[in-house]
Amino acid sequence: MAPPLVVLDNVCRDYATGAEPVVALRDVTLTIAAGEMVAIVGASGSGKSTLLNILGCLDRPTGGSYRVLGRETAALEADELAALRREHFGFIFQRYHLMAELTAAGNVEMPAVYAGLTLQARQARAAALLARLGMAGRASHRPGQLSGGQQQRVSIARALMNGAEVIFADEPTGALDSASGREVLRILDELHAGGQTVIIVTHDMAVARRAERIIELRDGVVVSDRPNRRETPAEAAPAPAPAGPDRAAIVPATPWRARLDHFREAFRMALLSMNAHRLRTVLTMLGIVIGVASVVCVVALGAGSQQKVLANINNLGTNTLEVFPGKDFGDVRSGKVTTLVVADAQALAGQPYVAAVTPTVSTSKTLRSGSIEVTAQVNGVGEAYFAVKGTELAEGAFFDADGVRRIAQDVVIDANTRKALFGETATSPVGRIILVGAVPCRIVGVTRPQQGGFGSSANPSVYLPYTTVQARFLGSTSLRSISVRVDDDASTDLAEQAVTALLVRRHKARDFFILNTDDIRRTITSTTQALTLLVAAIAAISLVVGGVGVTNIMLVSVSERIAEIGVRMAVGARRSDILQQFLIEAVLVCLIGGLTGIGLALGFGALFNAASTAFSLHYSLTSIIVAFLSSTLIGVVFGYMPARNASRLDPVAALARE
Ligand code: ADP
Ligand code: MG
Questions:
Q1: How far apart are CA 44 and CA 460, in angstroms?
Q2: What are residue 381's phi and psi, to 5 degrees?
Q3: Which of 148, 157, 218, 456 sits between 20 and 30 A of 18, alpha carbons compared?
Q4: What are the DSSP calls for 415-468, one per residue?
Q5: What is the mean pLDDT of residues 138-163?
Q6: How far apart, in Å, are the Cα atoms of 165 and each of 36, 39, 385?
Q7: Cβ(29)–Cβ(11) under 8 Å?
Q8: Compositional bias (Low complexity) at which positions (predicted)?
């Protein structure tokens, strides 16, 4: 004798609702052999569905022992029970439980996705099953376009898809008209004739009499279990090709192909569900779009302004040290400190780490050319000044060391001065004489206009040998500052220390201070970086808020689709399959939102850069990649909890909800 298919031993099922537990099944002991056709009958509420769910491993007993194919189900993990359902069981529900967004063929194929069948095998088998059930012409219809009887036939095809040995049918005719009901029963008869085990739950004795064995329940207790002499239905002509267990015909795909298939199915379901709730999906995405766009823009703005400021600093000259008299910036006495002298500059010029040195003095004088007068800054500088500052000449030449020694009345004017004195004329002013204060000076050169540096004001300024300025205008030999250009091979910081040591030795006191452009550059870089980080952190908060939105929407999505999850579990989806499906949905929402956000940020940047010249947005690839990754991560992190909740659902609890 074949081993019994299922063995129940004193199975109990209580529902702990309210103060008193509801006993749905009490001490049910029975055995069903392979190939039997069993009807479970009883009044409504007698525990029929509860018994069927336990038999089908959708539910677990609260007491007693239940063995399937010799295995104790209490010892099986959720995924092992799923495997049992997937490989050995097929379910037919009273309300069909088809997925509305899939076609008939799609519904029938679904269990095979989880069983790992190849796409071609799956489609061929689904088509064959539908054809056998007289549904060949309806394969591409959606459940909404089918009658109840047709939907039930689709659900029978789904139950047979994985070659189930046992068909569980809970009131399969309950929602059908009598003709469709008879048709469904005829199909079940056929399946039984082909060797399949069929277990039907019904409250209708007319249906039950088609079975070979009738188990009657009353208040959760088996009150009778008797063989039934079957009435052969009049219309049951010689059974056509029986649809017996044919697991041999099922060729699974290779594991990685199967995994890819699971993923594709999950992906397709996620897209279908997003499409079904477009407005909700778009609103959720909006949170992510705004978050990502603001992070990317803020970082770009930070980088852009930092570049701008650094460009300004670079105009101060590279690797330069400025030595000023006094204690620090804002030292009110610094103008009176007269200890910084030309000899200091000469001493510095002899140092190995120094590329060029220029002493500077300055004053303000009126320039005159003919009848035109203009007030200008008069800089007294050494011949190395332009080498130190990196300034370039547009015309003429700079005065040389000889000019400095001779106290020459040679002047180099800047572009502003040229414009103020000579207008936009093309003729070169080089060689002309102007009055600086009361001193006639010959123009020897014109500098190029400076591009937006700190020193680039519209104020005219001119350059004379410092000796000339000291002798003719200031009458003193002290300096306003000494500019030192550090050799490219030397460290600016070490040079600063050496300059400090040298001057302290010469002055016997620290009566000067040094501005280090490298230092300023570093300070500004770190300041703007800190600011960018701060603002980006604030923008990131909006990303988190967007993520919370995703969680919320996913929770709604899960609770809306609990029945769907139940069906998927009934046909054998693993927990990981369900988890994957919902996680993909969350990640897709975030990913699409993230990409849109990046696009928006780039578009905004293009607009901004076109509209404004003062600042520019500078996009870094890193910030874009980080934004992209973080939006994906948000999808995973914030989608995980709802997805996990979905995968942890109890199949029977999920199925019960509609
Ligand atoms: P039938 O299918 O025979 O109509 P059920 O198996 O659905 O009966 O229910 C048997 C008993 O268990 C009923 O009294 C019902 O109220 C109770 N029951 C079923 N499901 C639940 C549940 N999820 N929670 C609490 N009680 C339940
Ligand atoms: Mg029921």
A1: 101
A2: -135, 165
A3: 218
A4: HHHHHHHHTT--S--TT-EEEETTEEEEEEEEEPPP-S-TT--SS-EEEEEHHH
A5: 94
A6: 11, 16, 97
A7: yes
A8: 234-247
Q: How many CB atoms lie within 10 A of CB 596?
A: 19
The residue contributing the CA closest to ligand 1 atom 26 is: 15
- Residue 472 is classified by DSSP as I
Phi, psi of 562 (to 5 degrees): -65, -40
Atom of ligand 1 at shortest distance to CA of 22?
A: 26
Tokens of 361: 């003095």
Nearest residue to 89 via CA among 22, 12, 5, 4:
5
Ligand 2 mean position, distance from CA 170 (Å): 7
**What is the pTM for the complete model shown?**
0.71
- Mean of the per-residue pLDDT values of the chain: 86
pLDDT at 554 over 90: no
Which residues, in sequence order, are CB contacts of 44 under 8 Å at separation 6+? 203
Averaged over 363-382, what is the pLDDT?
91
DSSP of 176-191, one letter per residue? Answer: S-HHHHHHHHHHHHHH
pLDDT tens across 170-204, in order?
A: 999 988 999 999 999 999 999 999 889 999 999 99
Could you identify the atom of ligand 1 that is nearest to the CA of residue 47?
6
Q: For residue 325, give the nearest of 315, 338, 314 by alpha carbon.
A: 338
Ligand 2 centroid to Cα of residue 89, in Å, is 19
Q: The dihedral of CA 283, 289, 291, 293: what is its sign? A: negative
Region for 45 from its dihedrals, namely left if φ exceeds 0, alpha if ψ lies in -120 to 50, beta otherwise: left
- Pocket-testing residue among 13, 15, 23, 171, ligand 1, by greatest number of atoms within 8 A of Cβ: 15
Contact 585, 639 (CB under 8 A): yes
- Pocket-testing residue among 11, 20, 22, 650, ligand 1, by greatest number of atoms within 8 A of Cβ: 22
Cα–Cα distances in Å, from 509 out to 320, 322, 330, 361? 23, 18, 19, 22
User: Does ligand 1 have an atom closer than 6 angstroms to the CB of 20?
Assistant: no
Total length of the chain: 658
CB distance 49 to ligand 1 below 6 Å: yes
Bridge partner residues of 41 (DSSP): 202, 216
Q: Which ligand is nearest to the CA of 94?
A: 2
**Residue whose CA is at the smallest distance from ligand 1 atom 18:** 24
pLDDT of 511 reads 85
Ligand 1 centroid distance, CA of 198 (Å)? 22
Among 49-58, 70-79, 647-656, the range scoring the smallest mean pLDDT is 647-656
How many beta carbons lie within 10 A of that of residue 276, not counting itself? 14
Terminal CA-CA length for the chain: 42
For 331, phi then psi, to 5°, come to -70, 115
pLDDT of residue 508: 87
Q: Roughly what angle, to the nearest 10 degrees, separates helices 517-560 and 575-611?
A: 140
pLDDT of 332 higher than 70: no
The whole-number pLDDT of residue 247 equals 56
Task: Write the DSSP symbol of residue 146.
Answer: S
Rounded distance, CA 315 to CA 238, Å? 99
Which atom of ligand 1 is found nearest the CA of 51? 6
CB atoms within 10 A of CB 372: 12
- Walk me through the domains of the chain, giving residue ranges and CATH numbers: 4-50+85-253 (3.40.50.300), 274-310+523-655 (no CATH), 320-516 (no CATH)
pLDDT computed for residue 241 by the predictor: 44
